[in-house]
Amino acid sequence: MSAISPQTMAVLAGRMGEGVLRQRLAMESEQVSHHYRHVEDFLHPEHLPSAGRLIHRVLTAVGLRERGRSNARRIRVGRNPVRLGRLPPAFEGCTLLHLSDLHLDVGRHYVDALVATVRGLACDACVLTGDYRFGIQGSCAPAIAALARLVPVLPKPVFAVLGNHDGIALVEGLEDLGVRVLMNERTALERGSARLHIAGIDDAHYFRTHDIARARDGLAPDACAILLSHTPEPYRLAAAHGFDLMLSGHTHGGQICLPGGIPLLTDSRAPRRVARGPWHCDRMQGFTSVGCGCSIIDARFHCPPEVTVHVLHGA
């Protein structure tokens, strides 16, 4: 568990809710000790250290280890047009650069590839949907050092949420770099008198410290609002709360897939129809990034890493 000062804890409790903060800190302690209260928490792939070693040995044995590593560094730039019925006219054509599942501390060559991919991309804002470090325990310092290389080349402003790999100490590290971390709270982009609201929730996959109602509280029913969530799992709740667009990641699109991009595993309780790319639920549009990094092992097959430019249009 990352140590935080009483002053920082008081600030975070006010932002995300005291109860969910204490829950997150307790579950971070479980990750460090590997003493999980629930079987389902123990069975997450990232909590099984032998999983990465086994995959590494299999890929090495069949001669695919280096190809998988090379695939993981070939990061694509995707473009996703989105039509939002309540988008203020002032935001017609607004562009959001979306990065998810960065897992930055996996190695210098990967960070070099990601920086080269996003450098010079002209967008109106950038959103990060969690998982900044490769492991789930230990110091956040290597991930923050890699973020210090990446953040300066991202379009500004930058908004972010935490994922299931991220210790709470990353909030301070990200915000020291000028990134606005949304912990069950919201902010807005402004153009004249028009506003495009951006809300963010804490991780709903492992920590389960998301509070969509808190993030939406006080917002007018007809306001156009985007929700950032590390995982698409709470998509039905997000739609019920009237969000217009939900941006997420976590699934990696499967990362290691069969030909045709068929995932072997998405590590998500959400249905596969929302596990990658664009989707919708009732009136809410959604997009789940396949991620620009890797988890468990730095390899990809039939699922190229990507960053996405979302282009917003009115209905």
Automatic annotation (TrEMBL):
Residues of the Calcineurin-like phosphoesterase domain: 95-253
Pfam families hit by this protein: Metallophos
Keyword Hydrolase on entry: yes
Record keywords: Hydrolase, Metal-binding
SUPFAM superfamilies: Metallo-dependent phosphatases (SSF56300)
PANTHER family: PHOSPHODIESTERASE YAEI, TRANSMEMBRANE PROTEIN WITH METALLOPHOSPHOESTERASE DOMAIN-RELATED
Protein name per the record: Metallophosphoesterase
